[in-house]
Design goal:
Pfam families: WS_DGAT_C. The chain is α/β, with parallel strands linked by helices. Helices cover about 35% and strands about 25% of the residues. Strand 4 and strand 5 form a beta hairpin.
């Protein structure tokens, strides 16, 4: 699986100082699929998180090397390298928290408009045919599953979304000890990639 790992050079002093940034380094990880419940998967996930934290130097080096290579090499060579590296990945997954405060826009008439929710959408570069993106935004949480037609059918993608939503509901009920009445939204999108 490929995940984006945040690259941060300093922490923000307050919530008001938070800026929208897009600094991350792609990080390959291996997760076992043997767990029958979220709770059973926690020890494996904890181990992977510890591994990720222990490789901070790798993340920063990867981030800087990616920026340098993209600036120096021709785009066709960068794209070829990315395609070859991505063939080793089964899934792209992102659960990086989104903005904690709403985006504000100005209409053509100058009226200030707040975006109250954000639709997550992620296309993984290269040949990864399945992406799952979980994003929190301004007190909301959404899940997006993007699949290539050659990897999952539309019905399988919808089933995967339903299973993810059910797992999230069950985990919320387990942790909070209460029934979840608000729906967990999942959006699906299909893309056709060259095989």
């Amino acid at each position: 699986m490929a995940i984006p790992a945040n690259v941060r050079f300093e922490l923000y002093p307050s919530k008001e100082d938070v800026k929208l940034e897009n600094r991350f380094s792609a990080f390959p990880i291996v997760l076992p699929l043997a767990a029958s419940s979220m709770q059973e998967s926690y020890p494996h996930t904890k181990k992977v998180n510890q591994e990720l934290r222990s490789k901070q130097n790798f993340l920063y080096t990867s981030f800087f090397m990616s920026r340098l290579i993209q600036a120096v090499l021709p785009r066709s060579l960068v794209r070829f390298s990315l395609t070859e590296a991505s063939k080793k990945m089964t899934l792209g997954f992102s659960n990086i928290p989104g903005p904690i405060k709403p985006f504000y826009y100005r209409s053509l008439e100058g009226e200030k408009i707040a975006a109250l929710f954000l639709l997550p959408f992620m296309i993984v570069a290269g040949k990864v045919g399945l992406a799952i993106n979980c994003i929190s935004y301004n007190k909301s949480f959404r899940v997006c599953v993007t699949s290539d037609n050659g990897v999952l059918t539309k019905e399988q993608t919808v089933l995967l979304c339903d299973l993810i939503a059910k797992s999230i509901r069950l985990e919320i009920e387990r942790v909070l000890g209460e029934d979840t009445t608000q729906p967990v939204e999942a959006t699906t999108s299909e893309s056709k990639k060259d095989q």
